[in-house]
Amino acid sequence: MFGLKGTKCTPVIRGMILWALLTNIMLVLYCLTNPAQVKIRGYQEDTCPLSMAVLSKKNVTTHSERSKSQSEECSPAVNIMFMKTHKTASSTILNILFRFGEKHKLKFAFPDGRNDFFYPSAFMCSQVKDYKPGDCFNIVCNHMRFDHREVAKLLPPDAMYITILRDPVDLFESSFHYYHRAVPLTWRISGDNKLEEFLNNPQTFYSAEAYNSFYLRNLLFFDLGFDNNVEADDPRVMRDIHNLSKHFDLVLIAEYFEESLILLKDTLCWTMEDIIYFKLNARKSSSVSRLTPEFRAKALEWNGADWRLYQHFNATFWAKIERYGRERMKKEVNELRRRNAEMKAICIEGGNAVEAQKIQNSRFLPWQPVGESSILGYNMKKDIAPKFRTVCEKMLTPEIQYLTDLGVSLWLTRLWGWIKDTIFTV
């Protein structure tokens, strides 16, 4: 009938048709759940007052862990904006923030129906669950595309702004692995090494306007609210970087994660107990592409804006470490490692992360990329002493499950997860 009798669809074509249909369904659901994007600027009542900061600090105990030269006590920061960037160890930071906020009964600004603030749309206050102009929050930390003017409406004026960056080559490799199946233009890439094929001629498989293309170029720049398609020598790049410097109190570096957490502790006046962690959302080593120097150079050129961003804040990061003191930092890092090892021995079965198929309790199963299960997770020991059981469970809980524990409705995220795992996981 209609000249198609006897025609057979290949598995690739069937998959593309199915993906297109499901993508359209998800876009419709997104539109139905995306709140009205009405911008109301310039009104005093839209801004969270300083009094909120004063009142919220009653939930935490003042302490001092500063150097001997700083005898005065400091007050732990409770008003925090963490700009959660993609593929930068930010999920581990998120877990730390969840535990701190839950422990001290702080107020989170959460999305509604999903685990992000309608990413990749630019953030707006209306995306916060039950938001009303003038509402105040302590912590904003879910994925978003950053807009400082909108975020500032949610937090007291004394809020600390923090984010984390990662070497752009390693971030690009990780992002390509994790997201390329969600970027339709990459489906045409042939061969066993799709990443190298892409880097050999990226413009063939990339268009700025294409669906989900932002995942594959200058992802840090995009997450932070800028144009990810600018060239590295465009004057807007350094202008945007300097503007960002005015808003963020601390920019962490993923390659120096332990040092980053010590600076975080010092900046926020927290304790060592507040920053102990287990590494979450790590990939199994067999899924990591080992790029040659030639392809690293190509990836760096393709992500030139991110490279300039990283260079700038890597320099400010090490300047902060110099002011903190190298010997003092070394001592603190060793103490953090000791505390983490102690908690691993108490909490984790076997002491290390395992592949998704070996995770015994779905509560500890992390979200997986489309088409595979490459993200590691943990098994919790069964014979944990009662006084450690709750903290072990919280430290091992991935983002989606922890958000549910905190009362966030994730029906759209879970619907997409069911579709992804039922149809596309191999």
In short:
It holds the Pfam family Gal-3-0_sulfotr. It is a single-pass type II membrane protein. The radius of gyration is 22 Å and the shape is globular.
Q: Topology, pairings included?
A:
Layout: H1 11-33, H2 50-56, E1 80-83, H3 90-103, E2 108-109, E3 139-140, H4 148-151, E4 160-165, H5 168-179, H6 194-200, H7 219-223, H8 235-247, E5 250-253, H9 257-268, H10 272-275, H11 293-302, H12 304-324, H13 326-347, H14 386-396, H15 399-405, H16 411-424
Parallel strand pairs: 1-3, 1-4, 2-3, 4-5
Organism: Seriola lalandi dorsalis
Family: Belongs to the galactose-3-O-sulfotransferase family.
Keywords: Glycoprotein, Golgi apparatus, Membrane, Signal-anchor, Transferase, Transmembrane, Transmembrane helix
Order of helices and strands: HHEHEEHEHHHHEHHHHHHHH
Total domain modules = 1
User: What portion of residues is helical?
Assistant: 40-55%
Question: What is the percentage of strand-forming residues?
Answer: under 5%
CATH class: Alpha Beta
Please work out how many helical segments DSSP would assign: 16
What class would the helix/strand composition place it in? mainly alpha
Radius of gyration of CA atoms, rounded to a whole number: 22 Å
Q: Uncertain runs with pLDDT below 50, 5 residues or more?
A: 1-9, 27-44, 64-71
Keywords: Glycoprotein, Golgi apparatus, Membrane, Signal-anchor, Transferase, Transmembrane, Transmembrane helix
Family: Belongs to the galactose-3-O-sulfotransferase family.
Membrane topology: Single-pass type II membrane protein
InterPro entries: Gal-3-0_sulfotransfrase, P-loop_NTPase
